[in-house]
Design goal:
The complex is a heterodimer.
Chain A: H1 11-50, H2 54-57, H3 72-80, H4 83-114, H5 120-131, H6 139-148, H7 156-159, H8 166-176, H9 181-189, H10 194-205, H11 207-223, H12 226-231, H13 240-250, H14 255-275, H15 277-289
Chain B: H1 2-15, H2 23-55, H3 73-81, H4 83-116, H5 121-133, H6 136-147, H7 153-161, H8 175-200, H9 204-212, H10 217-228, H11 230-245, H12 249-254, H13 266-275, H14 280-309
Classes of the chains: A mainly alpha, B mainly alpha.
Chain lengths: 290, 311
Amino acid sequence: MATTSYVVPETGDLVRRRRLKKIGTAALYVLFGIVAIIFTLPFVLMLSSAFKTQAEIIQVPPSFFPQDPSLDSFRTVINDAPFFTWFRNSLLVACTVTIIVMFLCSLGGYIFAKFDFPGRDPIFVVLLATMMVPFPVLLIPSYLIVNKFQLINSLWALIIPSMVNAFGIFLMRQFIAGIPNDLIEAARLDGASEFRIFLRVILPMAKPPLAALGIFTFLAAWNDYLWPLIVINDIDKSTLPLALSFFNSAHAQRYDLIMAAASMAVIPIIIVFVIFQKQIVNALVIAGLK
Amino acid sequence: MVAITRTARSASKSRIRHRAPGYASRMRFVYISLVPILGLIFTFSLLPIGIVAWLSLHRYNQLSPVMPWLGLRNYEFAFQTDPFFRNALENTLKYAFVAVPVNIVLSLPIALGLNQITRFRALFRTAFFMPVVASAVAVSLLWNTIYDPQAGWLNAFLDWVGLVPRPWLGSPDTAIWAVLAAAVWQDLGYNILVFLAGLQGIPQDFYDAAKVDGAGPWQRFRGITIPLLQRTTLFVLVLTMISYLQEFTHIQVMTNGGPIHTSETLVLYTYKKGFSDFNMGYASAMSMILMGIILIITLIQMRLMRSRWEY
C-alpha cells in the first residue's frame, strides 16, 4: 500500500516519514517471514521424521534433516497397513457426502426461498434452531439411532446422517432468495418442469455458495474424527483420521512410521488446497460470514 | 413477454387465490423434495435433541433392558457428587477462556499486518492456512513428536538455547496448555482469514478521507478499523468460543485427558462415560449441560458485544 500523504507541511518531515514507513514495511516482512516459518516448520519436521530410519528417529537430540533419507517408513506403512483402503474410504465418504449435501441443501434452499407452502415459516425456524445445537451434544442419541438402523461399522453410518444440514439449507436459501422470480416464471412459461428449473436455472446461478458449501462439507467429512471413532470399529472400514489414531496406538514411539502415515494423509489435502487456494479461501469466508 | 406473464399471473391470482396455473405440479415438487430433506433433518438433528433430553432423566445402559426414571438426579450427581465432572467442566472453561483470547490476540494483528503488505500476501496466507485444512488427528500426532520428552524437537531446542526441557504432555502442569498451543497453531489461519476478509470489506475511501482530515495511523485505526470490524470480531469470538468449548480431538489424541485427568475436557469425559462405561443416561445429562453452557456463553457474548460496540 504505497500511500503518499498530501497534507504535509514540511518536506523534511515527509522524507522522514517515508523512511519510517519503509523501515516499518521491511520489519513487517521480516516478522511475517518468522511467523510463516513457525507455521510451516512443524510440517517440515513431519516430513523429516518420515524420511528417517528407525535408528535415527530415536536419536537424542533429533537431527533436523535425515542423515540417511530412506523411503522405508512409507514402504512399511503401505505394505503393513491397509493405507490405500483408508484413503479410498475417506475419499468415498467425503465425495458422496459432498455431492449429496450440495444437491439436497440447494434443493431445500430453493424451496424455502421461492415457494409458498403451508407451515413454511415455522419449519424454517425449527431448522435454524437445530443449527444452534453442536454435534458433540448429540453423540449418544445419534449413535443409538444409527445403531437402530443397523449401520454401525458401515461406511453408510458416516454418509447418511451427514447428507443434509440446516446450515447448508440456510446458506443456499440466503443466496437463492436473491435470484429474480422472473427467471423462474419465464422458465415455467417455456414449459420446463419444476425439477428442470431447479437443475438448469437455479443451480447454475447459485455456483458461489454451492462451491463454498461443497468445499466446507468435503473438508469437514475428510477430517472428521469423533463420529467415525464411535460408529466404526473395523480397521478396514476406517477413514484416514481414525486410522491414523489406530495406527498411532499400534506403533507407539515409532515416529518414523507415524509421521510417514500422517504425511501421506495430509499432503494430498494440502496439494488440493494450494491448487484451489483462492476458491477455498473465498468459500470459507462466504460460508463463515453469511 | 415478462409483462404479459405478470398480467396473466395476477389475473389468475385474483380469480382463484391459490390455484394459479401449475399450482398442483409446484406443490408436488415441494412435497417430494421436502420428504427426504425434512426426514433426514428430523431423524438426525431433531430427534436426537429429544432423545438426549429424555435419556438425561434416566439411568440408561444400552445392554440393560430396563431404563429407570431418575428425574434430575443425573444432573444432581454431576454438580454435587462427581469430582471428575467438575474437573472436566473446569478444564473445558479454562481451556476455552484461554484459547479464545490467545487465538484472537494472535490472529487479529497478523490479519492487520497482512492487510498492509502488498507482496507475498498469497504466499503468507497459504502458510498460515495450511494447518487448517490438515486433519486434527495428523496435527496432534505431529505435535506429539515435537513434544516428546526425549527425542522431541521442542526439548532439543530448549536444551540448545539453555532452557530446562520438560515432559510437556506428561506433566499435570503443562499437558492442557501444550495441547492448547497445538490446537491454536492449527486454528489460527481460519480466524486470520476471516479477519482479513473483514478488513478488506472496509472501504478505502474512509481511510483516505480521514487522512485528508489529518488523522494519524493510530487515530485511523481506532476511529475506522476497530468500529467497522466489530461484526467480524463478534462472529469470530462466538464461533471460536463455541468450537473450543467442544474440544475433543486434539486432547483425545495427545493426552487422552491425562495425566491424572488434568486435561480431560467435557466432551472427552462424556465420550468416556457414554462409550467406555456405557453410562449413557449420565453422559446425556452432561451433554445437556454442555449445550446449556454453550448457549449461555454465546448469548452473554452477543449481549455484551452488542451493547458495547453498536452505535
